[in-house]
Amino acid sequence: MSGNAPSSPDQTPGPSETPEPEQLLEHHLPSLLVFLRLRAGRLLRAKEWSMDLAQSVCREALESFDDFEYRGERAFREWLYTVASHKILERVRFYQRGKRDVRKEVQPVDQGGLVDLVNVYRSHLPSPSRDASAREEIERLEDAFDRLKPEEREVILLSRFAGLTHAEIGRRQNRSEEASRKLLSRGLLRLAKLLEA
What residues contact residue 98 under an 8 Å CB cut-off, 6+ apart? Predict the structure, then answer.
């Protein structure tokens, strides 16, 4: 660890202290994987492994880290999830341009880190029955998440995974802070009901 980096990525560094980008990315990788899987949607999940998307996001983040002004953990998280969102849009457009029907293709078996994904899901969202297998649990959550309205999915991802405040989410979605709070509450309630069904 460099002499000017904080002891953990959660600490806010002083004015001249910037954590190593690799340390920040490693710290955020589990939540980034979940964010990517949920944000990607069913069709992109059927085409690409979440770990491949995460590696691509991390590579782009490392390449552009010199252009990023580190202003603390929250700003880094917002920047990283913006990079991830752009990567997803890029990949979706790629498949749409080629008129590839990913519904007809064989789904990759993304076995890497299934248990870790379940644990991260549980820490952020209402979880399905603990008796279900890891694969069934993940599929059930992803199916329920896919059935939410797009704005509900977005506010849950930005709040629970990207860690943005309701004021920041409101600015991104052109809505008030209070409207963002209400949308999150409705989205989480709807997700919980879908998971109970």
Answer: none
Q: Is there a single domain that holds both residue 92 and residue 137?
A: no
Half-sphere exposure of 144 (CA within 13 A, CB side): 23
Q: Are residues 25 and 58 in the same domain?
A: yes
Structural domain boundaries, residue 158: 130-197
- Taking the whole predicted model, whether its pTM rises above 0.85 is answered as no
pLDDT of res. 134: 66
Our count of domains for the chain comes to 2
Structure tokens at 149: 């309205």
Q: Positive or negative CA dihedral for 162, 163, 169, 171?
A: negative
CB 91 within 8 A of CB 42: no
pLDDT band at residue 111 using 50, 70 and 90 as cut-offs: very low
Could you give the CA distance from residue 83 to residue 14 in angstroms, rounded to a whole number? Answer: 25
Residue 179 lies in a domain: yes
